[in-house]
Amino acid sequence: MNDLVEGKNAVLEALRANRPINKVLVAEGVNPRGMQEIYRLAREQGVPVQLVDRKKLDALARSQSHQGVIAQASPKAYVDLEDILAAAALSPRPPLLVLLDDLEDPHNLGSILRSADAAGAHGVVIPRRHGAPLTGAVAKASAGAVEYVPVARVGNMAQTIDYLKGKGIWVAGATMEAVKPHYEEDFSGPLALVIGGEGKGLGRLIKEKCDFLVRIPMQGKLNSLNAAVAASILLFEVVRQRILKG
Q1: Digit-coded pLDDT (tens) for 200-231
Q2: pLDDT tens for residues 13-71?
Q3: Three state DSSP letters for 125-162
Q4: Among 135-149, 154-168, 173-187, which is the least confidently predicted range?
Q5: Who contacts 209 (Cβ-Cβ below 8 Å, separation ≥6)?
Q6: How much is the pLDDT for 147?
Q7: What are the two backbone dihedrals, phi and then psi, of residue 69, each rounded to the nearest 5 degrees?
Q8: CB-based burial, 202-231: b 16+ in 10 Å, e otherwise
Q9: Sign of CA dihedral 50, 48, 74, 21
Q10: Which of 69, 161, 213, 238 has its CA 20 to 30 A from that of 19?
Q11: What is the pairing mode between strands 69-73 and 3-6?
């Protein structure tokens, strides 16, 4: 579960302290007195604010004093993308990042964090909106990997891809539309793997931004894999190629 911060003053102080907040829920019709500062800080910090029915807040709250405002806090602080790149620069291995495009299932995110840790990835990048944030469910599904894999949130994934390419990192997108299978591309250098969301896959703009696209060959009747499974296969292809290259 998310760590819930309930009540106007508690939410305000959490925002002032820059506590990692996934979302602020506000009951429809709540008295605007005392809310302006919450809205301002949430806007400055890129925290989504969502209006919901008060009954939903009542059902979600763990106390009876939420005052129409509840913040869903992350169980672990996010990092800046620059922090991930700085750690990669100090690593004996070339940079390896996983970018998630609109991945919404917290269990998939947790599994990807677990695979990223096992494969030695330097970090995972998720969108600030339209994607699963770090929650208790993610932490549980990661089997503890959330404590070791840095996660950055970005406002625009397409711009982030451009930024990484400017840093000399090749960007590979996973899609069944690709011509080449994943094992025919060179994954041994600085690399960011982009995994699409459940059902929709990679967005059009994201595919256009990638340096190259790869597919995982299928032999069965289904033509797609679970996002977490696909990420794991690609991550360990990176490991395989880097081991062979020495």
Answers
A1: 889 999 999 999 999 999 888 777 789 999 99
A2: 889 888 889 899 999 988 888 799 999 999 999 899 999 999 988 888 877 778 899 99
A3: EEECCCCCCCCHHHHHHCCCHHHCCCEEEECCHHHHHH
A4: 135-149
A5: 158, 161, 162, 171
A6: 85
A7: -140, 125
A8: bbeebbebbeebbbbeeeeeeebeebbebb
A9: negative
A10: 161
A11: antiparallel
Sheet strand arrangement including 21-27: 3-6, 69-73, 21-27, 49-52
Structure tokens at 130: 């339209």
Amino acid at 204: R
Judge contact between 111 and 146, C-beta under 8 A.
no
The Cα 68–Cα 58 span in angstroms is: 8
- The per-residue pLDDT for 2 is 59
Handedness of CA 48, 52, 56, 61 (dihedral sign): positive
